[in-house]
Design a protein that fits this description.
Blueprint (H helix, E strand, L loop, with lengths): L7 H58 E7 L8 E6 L4 E8 L2 E8 L2 E6 L5 E12 L2 E10 L5 E9 L5 E4 L5
Parallel strand pairs: 1-9
Antiparallel strand pairs: 1-2, 2-3, 3-4, 4-5, 6-7, 7-8
């Protein structure tokens, strides 16, 4: 009786090994998909945070400190420049795109300073401002993650406070 079952254990072991390998391959594919999805989610979150960060300072400047605002589409690759004259008339703030980096330039009397407004891990591909009416402007930013290559386009309507007069050099108002 023992002679007939010879090799039966070897077949069982081979079937078990094939089952384990197949299950492992299916599981590894699922884990890979999960990791890729997680990386996409992280990239999207980082892009949204970068967009919010890039909107925050122009929004504050336009709402609280600007007396006049001028929009010009003569910037880097046809992007917009937003030029703000502050309430006291002593400062001029310019938001502009240059070399896929968003900048804030401050001129006060004879002094001039430039600050970077975009994160180092992203490229700003487009910075566009459009006048909606005399109190609102639409700001659109197109951002690309340098690691993953993912892009988003984010827009925000900015309210102009302090009785701001809005000038658009591209349209007759």
């Amino acid at each position: 009786m023992h002679c007939r079952n010879k090799g039966f254990l070897l077949v069982e072991l081979n079937l078990a090994l094939i089952f384990i390998i197949t299950t492992s391959l299916l599981f590894a594919g699922g884990v890979r998909q999960l990791l890729q999805g997680w990386q996409r989610i992280q990239s999207d979150i980082m892009l949204r945070r970068a967009a919010n960060y890039s909107f925050s300072l122009p929004e504050r400047e336009l709402f609280l400190h600007a007396a006049t605002v001028t929009i010009s589409n003569t910037g880097y690759k046809g992007s917009s420049k937003i030029i703000c004259q502050d309430v006291f008339g002593s400062r001029q703030i310019t938001f502009y795109l240059s070399g896929n980096i968003l900048y804030r330039q401050t001129k006060s009397n004879s002094l001039k300073g430039v600050n970077v407004l975009s994160l180092a891990s992203v490229k700003i591909e487009e910075f566009r401002a459009e006048r909606l009416n005399y109190r609102e402007l639409m700001l659109t930013i197109k951002i690309q993650d340098t690691k993953s290559g993912r892009r988003i386009t984010s827009s925000k309507v900015l309210l102009l406070g302090n009785g701001v007069s809005l000038k658009d050099e591209n349209k007759q108002i």
